UniProtKB/TrEMBL annotation:
Pfam families: FGE-sulfatase (PF03781)
Residue span(s) of domain Sulfatase-modifying factor enzyme-like: 86-363
Cellular-component GO terms for this entry: endoplasmic reticulum
InterPro entries given in the database record: CTDL_fold, Sulfatase_Mod_Factor_Kinase, SUMF_dom, SUMF_sf
MF term (GO), any: formylglycine-generating oxidase activity
Keyword entries, A-Z: Signal
Family of the protein in this entry: Belongs to the sulfatase-modifying factor family.
Entry annotated with the keyword Signal: yes
Signal peptide residue numbers: 1-22
Official protein name in the record: Sulfatase-modifying factor enzyme-like domain-containing protein
Length: 374
């Protein structure tokens, strides 16, 4: 029943907003760096995995979300198979400026600012949740790539000491990422974790291939990078964020990122240390939640870093490549490490890669028959 779904979304949003607003401006590290490890969690780059010389300091403060979280039982969040909570928003077609002439990361190909023309399309109002992904898995007996490979990348600080002690390798460019056996969407922080109380959180440890399978089953598809950026900008021209250029207007957080010293401690000043429910924080001008922050989102495009400055209509990225584009940054981003929670920012991973800060949302040319217009 769409009404029931809509009420559920409003309820999530209301609860989350109460917790997330009225926080102080975050203090951001000023370190200038470009290798935050955003793109380091790739399966097909085995040279990026190195042996850990010595066990890390066991006194490292665990930055797991220890704040009280909203409790939602599975039963509350699982609806009939005929029901789909994943509402979509109509994104108006037209011209907009994609990219920026003031790139933070030149190597990422954030530039140049160029005019793009996009047809009207539909975008999921929020990141795909665990509840939604579970319905897909149950209906199709689907196994994610992380489950087939047997592991996925998890932030070290989120692991229990027991799991951490079993790990011998780390990502060379970003040693806070550990390949963890048994980490997958049901066990996002390793085999001794679960999602029972986080069914309204974004699904993570899903590869691009998993995301495509889900969207296809939902009679949807992944957005192109241009569509994603159009949706992120929500009609605002040449702004850093969906809402403007100030990250915390009126001292209110609009996105879930990291506060504190990365990767040691996430103070959760924005209300969340770790991932948050998919309808937390105010939506952007198009009604889309968490386009920036919370989890990175896969797009359909192959990665490329040079772009034509000329007007393009419905661009679809490179014809082929090794990596797919992901957008929006995640709860692990800070200004000093991975200042990529900006609409123009981008990063990449191989299509079979997965990590604890990488999810997705779907797009569609037409509203699927089972959804009603918001
Ligand atoms: Ca946060
Ligand atoms: Ca996001």
């Amino acid at each position: 029943m769409p009404n029931k779904q809509y009420r559920l979304m409003i309820f999530w949003g209301f609860c989350a907003l109460n917790l997330c607003l009225s926080k102080e401006e975050c203090t951001v590290p000023q370190e200038d760096e470009t290798t935050c490890g955003c793109a380091a969690t790739s399966r097909r780059r085995p040279e990026s995995i190195v042996e850990i010389d010595e066990p890390d300091d066991k006194t490292t403060e665990n930055s797991l979300n220890t704040a009280p979280s909203f409790k939602y039982s599975k039963a509350v969040n699982i609806v009939d198979d005929s029901d789909c909570t994943h509402q979509m928003v109509e994104i108006p077609g037209g011209k907009f400026i994609m990219g920026t002439n003031d790139p933070i990361f030149h190597a990422d190909g954030e530039h140049p600012a160029r005019w793009i023309e996009i047809d009207t399309f539909y975008m999921d109002a929020h990141e795909v949740s665990n509840a939604e992904f579970e319905r897909f898995v149950n209906a199709n007996s689907y196994k994610t790539e992380a489950e087939k490979f047997g592991d996925s990348f998890v932030l070290e600080g989120e692991l229990s000491e027991a799991v951490k002690s079993t790990i011998q390798n780390a990502v060379a460019a970003a040693p806070w990422w550990l390949p963890v056996k048994g980490a997958n969407w049901r066990h996002p922080e390793g085999p001794d974790s679960n999602i029972t109380d986080r069914m309204d959180h974004p699904v993570v440890h899903v590869s691009w291939n998993d995301a495509v399978a889900f969207c296809t089953w939902m009679d949807k598809r992944l957005p192109t990078e241009a569509e994603w950026e159009r949706a992120c900008r929500a009609g605002k021209q040449e702004r850093l964020f969906s809402w403007g250029n100030k990250f915390t207007p009126n001292n209110q957080y609009r996105a879930n990122i990291w506060q504190g010293t990365f990767p040691k401690e996430d103070t959760g000043l924005d209300g969340w240390a770790g991932r948050c429910p998919v309808t937390s924080f105010p939506p952007n001008g198009y009604g889309l939640y968490n386009m920036l922050g919370n989890v990175w989102e896969w797009t359909n495009d192959w990665w490329q870093v040079s772009h034509s400055p000329s007007l393009e209509t419905n661009p679809r990225g490179a014809n082929a490549g090794e990596d797919k584009v992901k957008k929006g940054g995640s709860y692990m981003c800070t200004k000093g490490y991975c200042y990529r929670y900006r609409c123009a920012a981008r990063s990449q991973n191989t299509p079979d890669s997965s990590a604890g800060n990488l999810g997705f949302r779907c797009a569609a040319d037409k509203l699927p028959h089972y959804l009603k217009k918001l």
